[in-house]
Amino acid sequence: MTTPPDGLPRYRVLTGPDDASFCRRVSEALDLGYRLHEGPALTFDGENVVVAQAVVWPAGPGERA
Fold it and tell me: Distance (Å, rounded) from C-alpha 29 to C-alpha 50?
């Protein structure tokens, strides 16, 4: 498959509180075929740790990444 399913973009940034729900969302993206792009970014909003993780759809043969 050269394009992500369901019309999803090739590049996505998933964000949310650092909890099990966020981890499930990242895991679901990986299960679809996305790959992690670098490491996560973390910040503190005064109450919670907030995480951002970029994921990319791998380029197919002959495609540019």
Answer: 18
